[in-house]
Write a structure and sequence with these properties.
By secondary structure, the chain is α+β, with helices and mostly antiparallel strands. It has one domain. Strands 1, 2, 3 and 4 form a 4-stranded antiparallel β-sheet that branches. The longest helix is centred in the middle third of the chain and has 18 residues. The radius of gyration is 13 Å and the shape is flat. The chain starts with a strand and ends in a 5-residue tail after the last helix.
């Protein structure tokens, strides 16, 4: 799963979680959208946590990945 930061027409950014299956990108979940850089970092951190929960494969070092906040 990938985390993206897409720019919208209203000059805000949205943070979706995307997966790639058979060469095509599929939207898994949209975390949110905002204009400020501080809020975008929070959304990216939430997206990382959510992608670990949503992934089918177990992660070995989950605690170390979640222990480094972007805020």
């Amino acid at each position: 799963m990938f985390i993206r930061k897409n720019k919208n027409r209203s000059s805000s950014y949205s943070v979706p979680i995307v997966s790639k299956i058979y060469g095509k990108y599929n939207l898994v979940k949209t975390i949110g959208c905002d204009k400020t850089e501080q809020e975008l970092k929070k959304l990216e951190f939430l997206a990382k946590q959510k992608s670990v929960i949503l992934s089918d494969q177990p992660k070995f070092f989950v605690s170390s990945m979640l222990a480094t906040p972007y805020c």
